[in-house]
Design brief:
The chain folds into two domains: 114 residues, no CATH class; 165 residues, Umud Fragment, subunit A. The chain is built from six helices and 14 strands.
Length: 285
């Protein structure tokens, strides 16, 4: 007679929590386990090859689907363990198999998936991009945004700080390659045309001359090829291209998409790259 072993519902629940489908393996239900695992894999593939992540509501839908699959896997494993009570042990019903699957999932498959998923979460550490991003805002960045297209004016981008590449900075793209950029009394001109910037905030009414600091008066300069001129929206409190120069396009790490969490709940879901915020008079749009 085959060896019969009692199934502990709490163990089945915890194993499914660690890896969807593992509770089913514990219950001797290999086909169910494969089904749950394939569902998780299909969800990752959907994230990789769809545009769900480009919007806040698409990401919420993705997370809800993933949470539902995980929760159903846990509850199904729990209920099956209660119903089955005892099973005939299979070859894979050994603790080292469970441990191996958990190790494979947590330390190999999950990190690999994270590395290829085209989005990354960031937290805003300073106020240089206020009011678009305030201290404590958590936002999503599209890491693949500039693989097939160049940045547009108005994009909020993440990049390696030119002075110290180990640090990531976030600013808004203002000047594009080949453009002549100048700042006159806090107003930005691109190719001698005023740039309308309704997103900008000024906290200091004083005008500083170019001889003292380049904050309010700067240029004119021409943006080099494969480079960008970037500035913070909190213009009087931002340390940006006016002070340390251009951003090389190769140092871009992605484009900010939307806020997914904030202490101010009204900010959750707010998109961060609306081109209607930025316009240049006539020929430069």
């Amino acid at each position: 007679m085959e060896d019969q072993k009692k199934r502990r519902p709490i163990v089945a629940l915890l194993l499914s929590f660690l890896t969807p489908g593992l509770g089913q393996i514990y219950n001797g239900q290999l086909k169910k386990a494969v089904s749950f695992y394939l569902a998780e894999c299909l969800l990752v593939i959907l994230l990789l090859f769809s545009d769900l992540f480009l919007s806040f509501f698409g990401m919420v839908m993705f997370l809800l689907i993933g949470f539902s699959i995980g929760l159903f896997s846990m509850l199904e494993a729990l209920w099956s363990a209660i119903r089955l009570k005892r099973i005939s042990l299979k070859k894979y019903n050994r603790w080292y198999y469970y441990l191996g699957i958990i190790f494979l999932n947590l330390f190999i498959l999950s990190p690999t998936a994270k590395s290829v998923i085209p989005i990354k979460a960031y937290r805003m550490p300073a106020g240089s991009m206020s009011p678009a991003l305030v201290i404590g805002d958590h936002f999503i960045v599209n890491k693949k945004a500039f693989e097939k297209q160049s940045p547009n004016r108005g994009d909020i981008v993440i990049f390696q700080y030119p002075v110290d590449p180990s640090k990531d900075f976030i600013k808004r793209v203002i000047g594009l390659p080949g453009e002549i950029l100048e700042i006159r009394d806090k107003k930005v001109f691109v190719n001698n045309q005023l740039l309308e910037e309704p997103y900008v905030k000024h906290t200091d009414p004083h005008i500083i001359s170019a001889q003292v600091r380049p904050r309010d008066n700067f240029g004119p300069i021409t943006v080099p090829n494969n480079s960008l001129f970037v500035m913070g929206d909190n213009r009087d409190e931002s340390f940006d291209s006016r002070f340390w120069g251009f951003v090389d396009a190769s140092s871009l790490k992605g484009k900010a998409l939307y806020i997914y969490w904030s202490e101010n709940k009204s900010r959750i879901g707010r998109p961060l790259n609306r081109m209607l915020y930025v316009s240049v008079v006539w020929g430069n749009l």
